[in-house]
Amino acid sequence: MPDELYDLFIEERLTSYLIIMKLCPNIKGFKFILHGVKLLVHDISKKRNINNVLYDQIANELNTDKGTIDGALRHAIELSSKRNGFKNFVKDFDFLIKGERPTPRELLSALAIKIKKEKFF
Question: What is the pTM for the complete model shown?
Fold first, then answer.
């Protein structure tokens, strides 16, 4: 399958997951989660060093800085938590998180692993 088509499938699936988590596409964190998970799906080794390697790559590609990315991800997680979005996702999709809400690293990693396990065809 061509990479562009695979990326569209990833984006479509992630968008539905994020909406189930009660996140709106108009927040910055939504875009950063989509981009970060796509990068992790293509190279899962970046999971070990998300704050340096992955955030740097996202920052370069989206013309922003690492602090903005981290803040936007934490804001998205906070919103989802306040709206009980993680409870729905955990219950419906067998998604495991430690504690009340995940860290940005846990969220990106878990979504990337979930997408990698799914078969689109």
Answer: 0.86
